Amino acid sequence: MWEKEYFHPLPEKRFEACKLVSCQVNKTSLITVETNKYSVPCDYVGQAAWAKNFCGSSNR
What we know:
With 60 residues, this protein is mostly beta strands. Helices cover 0% and strands 37% of the residues. It has strands at residues 18-24, 30-33, 36-39, 48-54. A hairpin with a 2-residue loop joins β2 and β3.
């Protein structure tokens, strides 16, 4: 195909289709992402954390 000469090479690092969400770890070592709660190690209580909310993920 003649179009191939116009294509750029794919990047070496794969793109992560996600949204980064800033969270605070509460005293029961949970973070809240949208309406969902997730446990994290107790060592993180009181600290800020980042969660990756991947596109296409279902909450069902």
